[in-house]
Sequence to fold (66 residues):
Amino acid sequence: MDIFAYLIPAALVGVFLVLCFGIYAMFRGGDFGRSWSNKAMRMRVVVQFVAILILVAAMWAKQHYG
Fold:
């Protein structure tokens, strides 16, 4: 369970950083915004999926190993 004490906050910070970058790219506009805002939001979905997998794995490990 010790590894999840580091993985969960890291995953949440990763989601937050990608979300902030996507919002920045969207509001910056221009060529940068067009090329990066959509890519960043797709990256956010992937990072959120990984974060959910980590949370589910932590819950499963807690149930099986206490």
Summary: The first helix runs from residue 2 to 28. The radius of gyration is 15 Å. The helical segments are 2-28, 30-65.
